[in-house]
Amino acid sequence: MRANYTLNGRYRIIRSLGEGGMANVYLAHDLILDRDVSVKLLRLDLRDDPKTIKRFQREGLAATELVHPNIVSVYDVGEENGMQYLVMEYVKGMDLKEYIKKNFPIPYQEVINIMEQVLSAVKVAHDHNIIHRDLKPQNILMDENGVAKITDFGIAVALSQNSLTQTNTVLGSVHYLSPEQARGGMATKKSDIYSLGIILYEMLTGTVPFKGETAVSIAIKHFQSEIPSVRDFDPRIPQALENVVLQATSKRPEDRYANVKNMADDLETSLSPRRASEPKFVPDHHSDNGETKVLDKAALQSELAAHEADETDENGVKVAKPKKKKRHHRKRWWAALIGLILLLIAGTVLAFWMGRPKYVSVPDVTGMTETAAKTKLSAKNLTVNKVTHKNSRQIRKGRVISTDPKAKKSVETQSNVMLTLSSGPKLIKIGNYVGQSYTRAASILRAKGVTVKRQNQTSNDITVGTVMAQSTTAGTRIDPDSTTVTFTVSAGQRQLTLANLVGKTKSQIQSYASKESLNVSFNYRYASAKKDKATSQSPAAGSLVTEGTTIVVTLSRGPKPTKPKIDEFSVTVDIPFEASSESSSSSSDDSSSDSSSDSSSASSDDSANVVQIYLRDQDHNYRSVYKQLTIAQDTQVSLPFAVESGKSGGYKIVRDGKVILSDNNVTKNSH
């Protein structure tokens, strides 16, 4: 099939994806639904076989009924110019065979997860009475998200009659062939279970159990040789997991799982610690298993002829059997009496035997749901009379932890059994620890087995070491072994190391103070340094200070002039505090409602006044702020002035953008 050929006017062929024993597979694009699909075309050498074509079409149509996330969907079945084709879902990824080679060794839990997906899909097929007959890793696709999807439900049946003869095309299939199929018998649902067991074997060991030079030699091993032990390959594999392989690949179909659901249920609990001491699975073989046997007709006729020869002479004339001598009448009487006594004894023994209690072994229902456990116990003529619950970290909630009597114990039929179900892990209730000491809160939770972590956060209002927030909401019930509670704890006011401000300009110092939430006050001195450059600071550089600390910086006025004379003096100004109406109402509401310290602090911050002071003298002008203060009450400040003799200075005090105090005629003698 060439690229760009459009099949049935709808499916445009893009490229080949591979060739199989019965069909060639192509990637195509559905021009109507605008999606990529896989197209399987029946091989040329099979297109002249009416039976193969009929089965291909019939089973392809049957596969369209299988809707399951782990089955490759069949969208369309058709024919064009004698070409039989199936249109299927395109799975981008690789087949399980390639996946095993690429990822081996595969973790046991991942093996179980993949197998459970495959078993779920096969169960749906079996529920629709569709038997795959050719389950193998090459027919299981793994998409990019790790989802397994089974394909070739419609092709496997048509292949069944050719699987051993087309050695060049379907040789891979014989590695997963059940013994009954290898003998030429009809495949059943249990044949699929055998193939699933071989697939599980390969996922655990990375190889198939039987190899040979020809397909026939491999097929013979399937019904003659025992499956090699996966634990011989990897002793770490739990015995319970190997038992799944052994039971699924039993030679006799009746020794395998009754259905794929039973296999899935057994596989699900195979890694459970409760099955760690499970014995190795051994099929229940007997020399005479009660099956009806067909006698050889020739042997039977030979036996009859020999019997007749005993009743004729050498000339073929029948010889009359010698008559038995009549026994004495008394002897016959004694024989009858002895027979009667023996009959009475036999009857007594039989009555005792029939009346004796019957015993059964309590089945292991660990890990099952209550309903499933009751069903399994009922099948053994046992009754559940009581159900209790117990916390368990190993057994999932709602599943059986144990039975009383214990599993495998021999008890009389119709006995009562008590089930203990898991309530899941024991949960604890988280309290509200906000506002409490971190040390106390952490001790309480750690005593209950909870992992506690701490993260610090600075705060101007919350006491150091106090819990400010918690990651788990109060009242939540948690599993202490799997949950971590993180507390946000107050570290007090933020501290910082004071930078070296000497040599910085006034604007640079103000920018630094604003960024680090510091207050700054400036002094001025004549100095050789350039005007407005800092000559000293207090506290000194490198000191550890907290947010809100006031630092005093001395700025240079430049070299001291000889003329004119400069008058230096200070003016004291009282700045009134003004409480806003909103702050007042908020404050009264807070006090009346007994609010927390957080809200009180917030109210205090909201009622503060931010005040800017502007000076006009020898060193300042109204274009820049001389000083900014945050006040919560009436505050008195001292303003330094340097004014040429005979001239005046001035000041303006601004609050919320409005000038509240000003004086433009400040002299040395006016204050």
TrEMBL record:
Residues 268-291, 305-324, 580-607 are annotated as: Disordered. Residues 11-271 form the Protein kinase domain. The keyword Nucleotide-binding applies. Residues 275-291 have a biased composition (Basic and acidic residues). SUPFAM superfamilies: Protein kinase-like (PK-like). The keyword Transmembrane applies. Keywords: ATP-binding, Kinase, Membrane, Nucleotide-binding, Serine/threonine-protein kinase, Transferase, Transmembrane, Transmembrane helix. It comes from Secundilactobacillus collinoides (Lactobacillus collinoides). The chain crosses the membrane at residues 333-354. Residues 356-423, 424-491, 492-557 form the PASTA domain. It catalyses: L-threonyl-[protein] + ATP = O-phospho-L-threonyl-[protein] + ADP + H(+); L-seryl-[protein] + ATP = O-phospho-L-seryl-[protein] + ADP + H(+). One of its GO terms (molecular function) is ATP binding. This is non-specific serine/threonine protein kinase. InterPro entries: Kinase-like_dom_sf, PASTA_dom, Prot_kinase_dom, Ser/Thr_kinase_AS. Pfam families: PASTA, Pkinase, PrkC-like_PASTA-like. Its EC number is 2.7.11.1.
